[in-house]
Design goal:
Length: 726
């Protein structure tokens, strides 16, 4: 065999200048003519024989040309260097002597290059293009190369049928139409959709009486494709036995909703045929959710029901229901909506449901399955970050042994996170281990994951000459509960240290008409300077306090919850003096009392070591005399029901967290954030304030709420507390 050699230095007569066009960053397409050229040739660029690759040359006869130019050819070559520092020449190795060509100074646009190729190749153009497509598709794809493929296919692809029905299905696209050019099975396609991208069609075929001889209907799934929705498809190209063909999208095509696609696949499988592997894929796809409840009609002793499904805004989906499966035939249980999914049987908490057992006990179809007498049919589960998009159904998919998937559609409601989660507390028995598990595994993570919008001041009204830039001001936060303001304003007015201060009263919008009118009347009567703040998104007094702090510009703020009741005049002055005594760099809090004068809060302290270290309210329930005559002292955290702090420090800590149910845990969280920012908490024992929370919830619900908050708090702070000093 004679080896074709490109010499290191070649002296050749002047070479012709040839047309070329770039294909991506690393390749060009060259067109010229010569006397003869083999199918595969080595090519060197810029006159450098060491920079060479092997390329495929596509040739055609030029009957009217002289012998030296009787063969037209097209080939791919490496791209010249950007600065064209070389000679701008390429060398094609062939038997005898190499062929030297000079690249034109400027490349041709791709469309103009292909038009010139069509003129030059004449009747051979389809054959040349077919070979070029093979070369381009075999190489590494890039946008410019795919653009070239698209233009070529537009020129040479013959009609191959129509797509008449399309529909999305998870990661694939359902297609149905007719063709006479490909058989059932797996077919590689190119999708034109503004650009061009590859895909695979797994298809079956069926007979249609309205088609000519040799044509048939087809149905299948388009897979491994880059497009997300069938509406993006312009046409489909595929390689048939006689060259490239195009499937056009029928102008009046039917666009299916995703939920109806499985039914069309089942219909196609019943009347059509496909190779075994393709039929199995299509069968699996046909078993997907189509909007029907199928678990209620299983022959197996498996049933399910939903008591409540709630989309927790910005957080996920909370589902409460039951699964009757005494023979344990159910495998994976998945909550789905569109392309989103969550395997819930790995997350749920099971609960006793004797009512479900009783409901099936008399049903003869389930008699043999009742021997186990298990009652743990209930479940509660929170699926985080699964948020159905508008129009997308929400459903449970059950993998059932001997059947495959079965489905149960859900009709969820929508609720803000706290309201949705608080509903669950009423369904639980706090004495059961199930209740603790639900709180720890479902409710606490759901509240932590929730993206709850912060409270927002939407309207303000000033009474008197309100000084928003005062060095010190009082912020009172009211929640939705009924509050008596007359005694509070009277105690504020008779205190000479408070009377001259600006006071912000922040209240939820739904109670503002009543509270606002009363506050306005009392402020005018006592001659107080008051800013009334209407707040949106208030769930407790902490939300109102935060909106109130942000609605003023005081250097130092005194916070007072609506649940607090002033016990003595001079309380704020003493707190402020203790605060100034620490250089204005602390959170100063008083002793908080229950109505019977027993201690509600007298400093939060750290106790224990390492992983057992915790924040502890040491004097809760003790008589007031238990603390004696102690002076101000630093503690682990203060009490935000009543305190004095820097407004800037509050804002830098980003205010109260929204990931708790109760104000006490929110306040503890804030004080620890301030501590981490270098702002300690100071307890001032001599100042005493009553804090009376209304008994709005049932005792057992309150116990579960406290457990949820403690679980959330420990998840967030346990590690930090274990390393705190003090």
């Amino acid at each position: 065999m004679n080896e074709v050699i490109i010499p290191e230095r070649t002296m050749i007569s002047p070479a012709p200048t040839v047309a070329w066009t770039p294909l991506g960053e690393n390749a060009i397409l060259v067109m010229s003519a010569c006397d003869a050229l083999p199918g595969k040739v080595p090519v060197a660029v810029d006159g450098n024989p060491r920079n060479r690759v092997e390329t495929m040359a596509l040739t055609w006869r030029r009957p009217q040309a002289d012998a030296a130019h009787a063969t037209g050819f097209l080939c791919l070559a490496p791209a010249p260097s950007p600065d064209r520092a070389g000679s701008g020449a390429i060398l094609l190795g062939r038997p005898g002597r190499p062929l030297r060509l000079i690249l034109a100074p400027k490349p041709m646009p791709l469309q103009a290059f292909l038009a010139a190729l069509a003129d030059e190749a004449g009747q051979s153009f389809p054959t040349v293009v077919d070979g070029l497509l093979e070369v381009l598709l075999a190489g590494k794809s890039n946008p410019r190369r795919l653009r070239a493929v698209g233009m070529l296919l537009q020129s040479v692809a013959k009609p191959g049928g129509f797509v008449e029905v399309m529909g999305p299905l998870d990661e694939g696209i359902f297609l149905q139409g007719w063709t006479s050019n490909f058989a059932a099975g797996r077919t590689k396609l190119l999708i034109a959709h503004g650009g061009l991208s590859p895909a695979v069609l797994e298809a079956g075929t069926f007979q249609r009486d309205d088609l000519g001889e040799g044509a048939c209907g087809f149905f299948g799934l388009l897979e491994e494709c880059a497009i997300r929705h069938p509406s993006e498809i312009e046409r489909l190209f595929f390689r048939a036995n006689d060259g490239w063909r195009a499937l056009e999208v029928y102008d009046r095509h039917v666009l299916l909703e995703q939920i109806t696609v499985p039914g069309h696949l089942r219909d196609g499988l019943q009347r059509g045929m496909a190779p075994t592997a393709t039929a199995e894929k299509l069968k699996q796809a046909s078993q997907r959710f189509d909007g029907r409840d199928t678990i209620s009609f299983l022959e197996q002793p498996v049933r399910a029901g939903i008591d409540d499904a709630t989309i927790v805004e910005g957080s996920g989906v909370l589902v409460i229901g039951w699964l009757f499966d005494p023979d344990r035939l159910t495998g994976t249980v998945t909550l789905r909506s569109g392309s989103q999914s969550c395997v819930v049987d790995k997350l749920w908490t099971r609960a006793a449901r004797p009512d479900v057992t009783a409901a099936f006990a008399e049903d003869p179809r389930f008699g043999p399955a009742m021997a186990s007498r298990r009652n743990s049919h209930g479940f509660i589960v929170f699926a985080p970050k699964l948020l159905p998009e508008p129009g997308q159904p929400l459903y449970l998919e059950f993998e059932v042994e001997g059947h495959g998937p079965a489905f149960l559609p859900l009709s969820p409601g929508r609720n803000p996170p706290r309201r949705a989660l608080e509903r669950v507390f009423g369904l639980l028995d706090p004495r059961s281990s199930t209740a603790a598990a639900v709180v720890e595994r479902q409710i606490a993570p759901a509240l932590q994951a929730a993206e709850i919008a912060p409270p927002k001041a939407i309207e303000t009204h000033d009474i008197g000459r309100f000084n928003a830039d005062a060095a010190l001001g009082l912020v009172i936060g009211l929640d939705q509960r009924q509050r008596e303001l007359s005694s509070l304003f009277a105690l504020l007015a008779i205190d000479p240290e408070i009377r001259p201060l600006p006071i912000v009263v922040a209240a939820p919008g739904e109670s503002f008409d009543r509270l606002g009118a009363e506050a306005r009347r009392l402020a005018k009567f006592y001659g107080l300077q008051v800013r009334l703040v209407l707040v949106e998104g208030v769930e407790d007094s902490c939300d109102a306090l935060e909106a109130g702090v942000r609605a003023c510009r005081f250097q130092t703020v005194a916070l007072l919850s609506g649940a607090a009741q002033i016990r003595m005049p001079g309380w704020l002055g003493r707190l402020e003096r203790a605060y100034r005594g620490r250089g204005g760099h602390c959170v100063a809090s008083p002793t908080l009392l229950f109505e019977d004068n027993s201690i509600r809060w007298a400093g939060a302290w750290l106790e224990g070591e390492g992983a057992n270290r915790r924040v502890y309210n040491r004097f809760v329930g003790y008589p007031l005399d238990a603390i004696g005559s102690l002076g101000p002292m630093e503690v682990a955290a203060g009490a935000t029901e009543c305190c004095v702090m820097s407004r800037n420090a509050f804002l830098e800590a980003d205010g109260f967290s929204r990931s708790y149910f109760t104000p006490s845990e929110k306040g503890l969280d804030l004080c620890l954030k301030l501590r981490m920012n270098g702002v300690p908490s100071l307890w001032v024992p001599e100042v005493e304030i009553y804090v009376v929370e209304d008994a709005e919830t049932r005792p057992h619900v309150g116990a579960l709420i406290n457990l949820a908050d403690r679980t959330s708090f420990d998840r967030r702070w346990a590690l930090a507390i274990s390393n705190m000093r003090g």
